[in-house]
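Sharing in case it's useful to others searching the archive later.

Someone asked me privately for the predicted structure of Putative ABC transport system permease protein, so I'm posting the question and my answer publicly. Question first, with the sequence:
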Amino acid sequence: MALTGRLRSAVVIGGQGIRARKLRTFLSMISLFLGVLAIVAVQASSVLANRALLADIEMNEGKDGTVVVGVPPGTESVSAVLDLVTGHPGAVATTSTGAIIGEPGLTPVNPGGVPLRYADQGGPAMKMVCDGRGNCYSEVSDDKPPPRGNAVELLVVGVTGDIRQFRPFQLEAGSWLDFGGQPSMSPRLVLNREAAEAFTRYQLPAEMTIGGSGSQPSPGSPHPTPRVVGAVHDGSSQPTAYVRADELLRWLPETSNAAQSMGILMTPQASASITPALRAKLGPELAGQIYTHTVDSRERIGGQLDMMKWIFYGMAALVLLIGVAGILNVGLATVGERVEEFALRRAVGTPRLLLAGIVLAETLIIGLLTAAAAIAVGVVGLEAAGQVFGANRPTLQNVEFPWEAGVAGVAAGLVAGVLGGLFPAIRAARIPIATVMRA
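And my answer, the predicted structure tokens:
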């Protein structure tokens, strides 16, 4: 209880000293404010950059811990994957192919499914090629293409379930695919941003050529009438549409269906049962071609982010030291002016520890007030940045101020208060009682 009483006295007297020297306190806070704000800004930027980078990686590759399996192409592979994965709550299979939506028989505005920023720029004809792991890319075609028409080429990804449990797409319009009931003869599509932009920019007829690329559709390519049911942000710059796998496969020609490769996204628990069963179904030859890896993005990029964060922390610490020097200067000057006061307190029985506590309490209160001001500026600044730049920078939209930055700001304020007030506190505690005779 005695310690509690001394601590309370130190805080009260320190607060009275701050109130008695408002201008000097304000100047001390200004010298410290930039340093604490720099610490808050570095921590907030680090957390937000980490979140944004991981969000982009998760949309493209999958959440950390997701087991990704690539299955070689073939009719047996497709049927085995569908038998094991369809309806499984912890696994989603994907397959992809090229498609053209719009006027048939003409070259699309983006041959090869390139991003729309390269549309209508000419160049050689492209065709889509997919490897055994489900990765699709474009390569130059030697065939002379027909004239360009009102058509867009895109990648069509068939999924057996809600892929968003592994790749957290952001639904922006409409709804996601409904996997209940029988497959429709009219494929239901969910477009990504790039594909949705194509539908907005061009007047596209509701006709889709599946299984072809550029103006060279595969022989017997079907022409179903698609229905757009929603739009998502999937982090890809390539025009892409997502469709139920059973609706996609029923439209593919037999030759294309046999060449389809499958990919599987699943939880580690699902992988423990599905992967061995899949290897057994495929047999030794095809099982040896299965590709498996576990997504671990945080570990892969964590070192790079930490290095950048510590570099900026070092710069912020230099600014903070300038603020500490300012508090130290003001503290020493204040103690010099209050020598008689402290000597008188010593004469009436005030312990040395309490005198040191009074001075240290003042600097700690200044540090906490400065930290609060810096955190408040950080919160307001982040909100303002979201309102001003949010339209062009989606990562700034609806962003909450990270609590880690607030903790870092409070810690910086306390450290600055201790460093700036420790030496003046020691000096105040060492003032001899005889100094009171000057008064």
